[in-house]
Design a protein that fits this description.
The complex is a heterodimer of chains A (742) and B (540).
Chain A (H helix, E strand, L loop, with lengths): L1 H26 L7 E9 L8 E3 L8 E3 L4 E4 L9 E4 L8 E7 L4 E6 L3 E13 L5 E14 L7 E9 L2 E10 L2 E14 L2 E12 L8 E5 L6 E6 L4 E5 L6 E6 L8 E6 L5 E6 L4 E7 L8 E8 L8 E4 L5 E6 L2 E6 L4 E7 L4 E6 L5 E6 L3 E8 L7 H5 L14 E2 L10 E2 L2 H32 L2 H15 L3 H18 L1 H24 L2 H4 L7 H27 L22 H9 L8 H25 L3 H9 L4 H30 L2 H6 L17 H8 L8 H37 L1
Antiparallel strand pairs in A: 1-28, 2-3, 3-4, 4-5, 6-7, 7-8, 8-9, 10-11, 11-12, 12-13, 14-15, 15-16, 16-17, 18-19, 19-20, 20-21, 22-23, 23-24, 24-25, 26-27, 27-28, 29-30
Helix pairs in contact in A: 1-15, 3-10, 3-12, 4-10, 5-10, 6-8, 10-12, 11-12, 12-15, 14-15
Chain B lengths: L1 H8 L5 H31 L7 E5 L10 E10 L6 E6 L12 E5 L3 E5 L5 E5 L4 E10 L5 E3 L5 H43 L4 H29 L3 E5 L5 E5 L3 E5 L6 H17 L2 E2 L4 E2 L2 H32 L4 H13 L4 H24 L14 H26 L2 H9 L4 H12 L1 H17 L2 H6 L26 H10 L4 H40 L2
Antiparallel strand pairs in B: 1-2, 1-5, 2-3, 3-4, 6-7, 6-11, 7-8, 7-9, 9-10, 12-13
Helix pairs in contact in B: 2-15, 3-4, 6-9, 6-12, 7-9, 8-9, 9-12, 10-11, 12-15, 14-15
Classes of the chains: A alpha+beta (742), B alpha+beta (540).
Chain lengths: 742, 540
């Protein structure tokens, strides 16, 4: 039996610590870097470096296109022979430029006789009953369109799909120079579905360029063309309004420093640029403060590559991109500015592709061999920087701490900064403690030192019961009863906060000036009872005084600074709710920190009270008796003997109260707006770590980044309270040892 | 003498500050009293039948026109405008007008009020209360009875009872019989999935069940039709008349005719209905029985788990472990676990019990039902486990305290009689500390009953279709989701379509929960006090 008890006891205690270990184990994957391993190679044909290539969702059947009349699909497992699908090209033309847009499964090509066109590469998976799949590729050819009038060869092509308008941009050779053309294609929608694409316009954008064009990029939205020039300039030409318009030109690396690469990140809002030395910067489209148009602004700088980027591919589901120079391969995440994985491979990389699921990628070497790598990076957007640092998210005007875990669109990027949540937690705790600490400590002091013992036997359990009131009840009362009352009565609340303690001091002073016979009327230890009616009366008066003060102080002014008249009464309108935003510039919400501070304070008061009262009562009676015998008044005894001895116990009470406020969930969920903001304003809400978990965890997919991030939030809470509580406990033990000596 | 002189000449130093500390206590007591008083008053008011007023409004006033028939819920002065406003509950929501059943009326717009005796309040199956004047009752056997007839009340009562019986039959038919058939159908379907060779036999059995179902459905249609046969013609405040099938009414009363005793009886009747009925209409009407039952079962399951665990851990810590640094650290940690926020336990429960253990149980034992999770989703078992962990520190601390309070002499006496260590603990120490352990259990239960945040993650729901404990094998359905009083408050107070109509329900539930928690805590405190006294005397 002894063994069983020992095993059981130790087991249970270990299990309790298992909570901590389990939560840590759920959080750890967030801080892991990407795992990459080479899983095989396949040959496109000896020495063949194709024009474009791509892979399917499962990376089982890569294809390459060489500009000829066929597209070749190669079985990655090497079991089946290559599959060649024929492709019809305009007669007598050779393909001189091609580019693959994986999201649209589209290969855009340009020909030697000055035409551009495209074809779709589709993979259709078929699932057999036993779970195996067979992938059948297919090609859908598209129209070809003439570019310009010169008939010169096309050197680069780009494609963008803006819904009904699509654009193919091309760099075309004409008289030894390169011209920039944008072919606008319109798709007629009819009742019968989507109609044929017709050429709407051929825009010659060459005059808008500042130098000889080098690299051409078109965002997926198809509303712009971005071109770099030989002397390191980027031209941003906007097409969205129908009339081409040059929005911006800038030198990302300084005048005269050539740009080695320029590519879009998933979402097509940000550009990754490298120069000849490998320096890497990210520019994002945003409306700068004071501006009215979206332009590219430098938002991030990443560690430099070994040299100019020689290949680039991006993930189709997050902000990861794979790039490198020569033999160096680097997987990076734009938002967190982190290098997720970087290595030198044993060959010069000519091209790369990431599959649609982000589970693998392939690298093409200079001998036409395709190297397949598995990629395991489920949480690229996490990391210390994302959780605790300022991050410059796409579209924002400056780096900031933001929590916004879900959005409406596919390319929405979760913003997972824990800082607003920690801020909210501390804010709620601060206001709650501001209210709770004075009340609880004063009450504890009175109960322990002055209250009659027979009353104490009733008061103490009453406060303990108060500690056990379910927080959902307090939260409900805060939101549906207190908040509507306080909303109209903020000045009255301020009057109460100032007035009630003042009344107590005043009454105390007056009372102690009375002759002793009069004072004997209220026995020591019953002052609190006598004070209740006085306090209620004073509180009623102060409550009524609130609106009067409001009408004098909180006069609402209109935009020009004149007082606003109330149409009903004809007097100057005075309303704290309108006045506060005018004087402070911060909003006023009905469910605000005042309400939370009050109700959470109410939840914390009994916790602090009980422990502080214990600490005060445990001061040995011999000490207080000695002090009284030496002629000290009861207040002097308290101040000089009891408080110093009990101070560590009182501190521990405060710590435990703090721990309770930090972790409180339901009151905050119900009584605030749950907006993750970073303000200390008393009159708006907050979102705390605990409330955030309660509202978001039920919706978070298992093992997703959000799920693990919420676990991280729980871990932070766990640590916060554990540290605070341990400090309190150690103090309490010290206190106990101290008394043993006495 | 010296003392007397000093009393007369000068007050003791710091008396004014003593008053300041007295304020702290006074404030605390007043706040507790106000809060509990508020819940008590609002919570009991809900059941008290109010008088119905016919309010005639000034023509063309801002409060609306025409007479209003309703209960005045609140009379308050608007802080901003200084105008007195009445919040009137006029009921009579309908399919055509499902908006709100409350409106504000400015007292200045009221021309006159009267309390018509014949006005009737009816609690309906749907759309809340109806308030009207009864006109005549047409029963299914063709009898017509005017409201002024002497036997009108008795006839209405009979019709209501009949309708109640039919509704119960209908419910039994739909819940039990049809529910059984659909469950069997799912079972057969899953059987085909796991073993395709049973396809033909299972399909045949399913066809038989389908035929049974058709028969039962026909029966249900008949009952439903019968419910619309008795019709009560009523006149509403505006003077218009309409027909109200008696089958839609739960019970009716004429509030202005009731005596005080009748009111009290009605209040009790409504209170018991509140305790024993299932909720209706997005939980805003009806009772809270499933929530009470769910809370009860969850708390019991939790205490069954936490008691042995807590007692074993405490015995180990107090009686077996060597009192050194390690035990000190462990004790600090256990104490502090009590201070870890409850939501963290919820997070652990979801991640560990539901998604890890539950998921594996599903893979091993309930593979045929996948991808629909059985234990791999929140349920009452996982909720109990989570709360057991949450309350374990409370239990350990309380038990340790109780074990420590057992006098040394008693133990030594047992050991001297030749008992082994375990025998001493089992026969002497544990029985002596039983009240302390009980205190721990009660405190743990009180804490468990009041927690909501962790439960939101591990299996509490707005409306559970079936109870976690019923007469259907295997009787205890540990995987089922359940309703909980605390969550009910959150849900009804914050996720209801009509916030004003939900308030009475929330206050009543709150009162119940508070009473539950306070009673539990009080009894724990009383037991503890008694225990302390007993051993304070027993040590000598």
């Amino acid at each position: 039996m002894t063994v069983a008890i020992k095993a059981g006891g130790l087991g249970i205690i270990l299990a309790v610590f298992g909570i901590f270990i389990f939560i840590v184990s759920q959080v750890l994957p967030l801080f892991r870097s990407a795992r990459v391993a080479e899983i095989g190679t396949l040959d496109f044909g000896p020495g063949k470096v194709p024009l474009v290539f791509g892979i399917d969702e499962w990376a089982e059947l890569p294809f390459y296109y060489d500009g000829g009349p066929e597209v070749v699909f190669v079985d990655a497992a090497g079991k089946k022979p290559s599959l060649k699908l024929p492709l019809a090209l305009p007669e007598g033309a050779a393909v001189t430029a091609a580019s693959f847009i994986p999201v649209d499964h589209l290969v855009v090509v340009g020909t030697s006789d000055g035409r551009v066109g495209s074809f779709r590469v589709d993979y259709a998976p078929e699932f057999a009953p036993d779970g195996s799949r067979r992938i059948t590729p297919s090609l859908t050819p598209g129209e070809f369109y003439e570019v310009g009038t010169s008939g010169g060869a096309i050197r680069q092509v780009g494609f963008g799909d803006g819904g009904n308008t699509k654009v193919i941009a091309a760099l075309q050779e004409a008289a030894g120079k390169l011209e920039l053309h944008a072919i606008m294609l319109r798709q007629k929608s009819s009742l019968m579905g989507k109609g044929k694409l017709t050429k709407d316009a051929d825009l010659d954008l060459t005059p808008m360029l500042t130098g000889a064009p080098q690299l051409l990029r078109v965002p997926r939205t198809g509303d712009a063309v971005i071109v770099t020039t030989a002397d390191g300039l980027v031209d941003y030409i906007y097409l969205g309004s129908g009339i081409p318009e040059k929005r911006q030109e800038w030198h990302p690396f300084g005048a005269g420093i050539a740009i080695a690469s320029i590519d879009f990140i998933f979402g097509d809002v940000s550009l990754v640029l490298t120069d000849a030395r490998g320096a890497m910067d990210i520019y994002s489209l945003l409306v700068p403060e004071g501006g009215d148009q979206r332009i590219f602004v430098k938002t991030k700088s990443l560690p430099a590559l070994a040299g100019p980027a020689s290949f680039y591919t991006r993930s189709q589901r997050n902000k990861l991109f794979l790039t490198g120079s020569g033999r160096q391969v680097s997987l990076r995440h734009s938002t967190t500015e982190e290098v997720r994985w970087q290595e030198n491979v044993g060959f010069d990389v000519r091209g790369a592709a990431i599959d649609a699921k982000g589970a693998s990628f392939v690298l093409l070497d200079d001998s036409g061999k395709l190297h397949r790598f598995s990629l395991d990076d489920p949480h690229p957007e996490s990391g210390w920087r994302a959780y605790f640092g300022k991050v410059w998210y796409e579209g924002a005007t400056h780096p900031d701490y933001t929590w916004q875990s879900t959005g409406g669109t596919d390319d929405f990027e979760p913003k997972l900064s824990l800082r607003p949540l920690i801020h909210g937690t501390l804010k709620g705790t601060f206001w709650a403690m501001l209210f709770a600490v004075p009340v609880a400590l004063l009450a504890a002091i009175y109960t322990a030192q002055f209250l009659r013992p027979e009353v104490k036997r009733i008061v103490k359990p009453m406060m303990e019961i108060m500690a056990s009131l379910p927080s959902v009840v307090l939260g409900f009362l805060a939101a549906l009863w207190l908040a509507p009352i306080l909303e109209n009565r903020v000045p009255s609340v301020f009057m109460l906060v100032l007035g009630v303690p003042l009344t107590a001091v005043l009454v105390g002073n007056l009372w102690s000036r009375l002759p002793a016979e009069r004072r004997a009327l209220i026995q020591p230890g019953l002052e609190w009872l006598a004070f209740i009616p006085v306090m209620l009366l004073a509180a009623w008066g102060l409550w009524q005084l609130g609106p009067v003060v409001e009408s004098i102080v909180c006069q609402v002014k209109d935009a020009s600074g004149h007082p606003v008249l109330d149409p009903a009464t004809g007097k100057t309108a005075a309303d704290f709710r309108l006045w506060w935003p005018q004087v402070s510039g911060t909003p006023f919400d009905q469910r605000n920190s005042l309400v939370v501070g009050f109700m959470m304070g109410f939840a914390v008061i009994p916790v602090i009270f009980t422990i502080a009262e214990d600490a005060l009562s445990n001061v040995p009676a011999s000490l207080t008796a000695a002090s009284a015998a030496l002629g000290a008044s009861r207040w002097q005894t308290l101040r000089t003997i009891v408080l110093p001895i009990a101070s560590s116990g009182i501190f521990s009470a405060l710590m435990i109260g703090l721990g309770r406020a930090v972790g409180e969930t339901m009151i905050v969920v119900m009584a605030t707006g749950n907006t993750p903001i970073m303000e200390w304003n008393l009159f708006n809400g907050m979102r705390t770590l605990s409330a955030n978990i309660a509202t978001e965890l039920p919706e978070a997919p298992v093992h997703s980044t959000l799920y693990r991030t919420l676990f991280l939030g729980a871990l932070v809470l766990f640590f916060l309270t554990f540290i605070v509580n341990t400090a309190a406990e150690l103090l309490r033990q010290r206190l106990r040892d101290k008394f043993k000596l006495v | 003498m010296a003392a007397a002189v000093s009393l007369k000449s000068k007050p003791p130093q710091g008396e004014a500050k003593v008053w300041l500390t007295a304020m702290g206590l006074a404030l605390g007591i007043v706040m507790v009293a106000v809060l509990l008083g508020l819940i008590l008053v609002r919570g009991t008011q809900v059941f008290w039948p109010k008088r119905v007023l016919e309010i005639t409004l000034r023509e063309g006033s801002a409060s609306g026109s025409g007479p209003v028939l309703g209960e005045v819920m609140v009379r308050q002065r608007n802080v901003r405008t200084g105008v007195e406003e009445w919040l009137v509950h006029f009921g009579n929501k309908s399919k055509e007008d499902p908006g709100t059943s409350y409106r504000f009326v400015a007292s200045g717009d009221v021309v006159s009020t009267r309390e018509p005796l014949e006005v009737m309040v009816a609690e309906r199956m749907e759309y809340g209360d109806a308030i009207f004047y009864p006109v005549r009752l047409t029963t299914r056997d063709g009898k017509v009875m005017e409201a002024a007839d002497v036997d009108f009340p008795a006839a209405l009562e009979t019709a209501l009872e009949k309708a109640g019986g039919e509704r119960r039959q209908l419910l039994a038919l739909e819940r039990k019989e049809i529910g059984r058939i659909s469950k069997q159908l799912v079972k057969l379907e899953n059987g085909i999935k796991t073993d395709p060779s049973r396809e033909t036999t299972n399909r045949a059995a399913m066809a038989v069940l389908q035929a049974d179902y058709e028969k039962l459905a026909e029966q249900a249609r008949g009952l439903r039709a019968a419910l619309t046969k008795d019709v009560l013609r009523v006149r509403v405040a505006s003077g218009g008349e309409l027909d109200q099938p008696v089958g839609e009414l739960l019970h009716v009363y004429q509030p202005n005719k009731l005596s005080q005793g009748g009111r009290l009886a009605l209040a009790f009747q409504q209170f018991f209905a509140f305790l024993s009925e299932a909720p209706r209409e997005a939980n805003m009407e009806g009772g809270i029985f499933p929530a009470i039952f769910g809370t009860f079962v969850m708390t019991i399951l939790m205490s069954l788990l936490v008691t042995p665990l807590g007692v074993i851990a405490a015995i180990y810590l107090r009686e077996y472990a060597k009192q050194g640094l390690l035990v000190r650290i462990v004790r600090i940690s256990v104490n502090n676990l009590a201070g870890v926020p409850s939501i963290v336990f919820g997070v652990f429960g979801l991640g560990f019990f539901v998604y890890t253990i539950g998921h594996h149980i599903d893979e091993w034992f309930f593979a045929s039902a996948l991808p629909t999770p059985t234990f791999g989703t929140g349920g009452i078992l996982w909720a109990s486990f989570t709360l057991a962990l949450l309350t374990l520190p409370v239990m350990i601390v309380a038990t340790e305290e109780a074990l420590g309070a057992v006098p040394r002499g008693v133990r030594e006496a047992a050991l001297a009689c030749g008992a082994s260590k375990w025998q001493t603990i089992q026969r002497v120490v544990l029985p002596a500390s039983a009240p302390g352990v009980l205190t721990g259990v009660i405190l743990a239960m009180a804490r468990g009953a009041g927690e909501v945040a962790p439960l939101m993650l591990v299996g509490v729901v707005k409306l559970a279709p079936s109870l976690p404990l019923d007469l259907e094998a295997p009787f205890i359905h540990a995987e089922r989701k359940f309703m909980h009083l605390g969550f009910h408050i959150y849900d009804v107070g914050f996720q209801s379509p009509d916030a004003e109509a939900a308030k009475p329900m929330v206050y009543a539930t709150t009162l119940l929960l508070i009473v539950l928690v306070v009673v539990m805590n009080l009894s724990a405190i009383l037991i503890r006090n008694k225990l302390r006294k007993k051993y304070a005397a027993g040590t000598f």
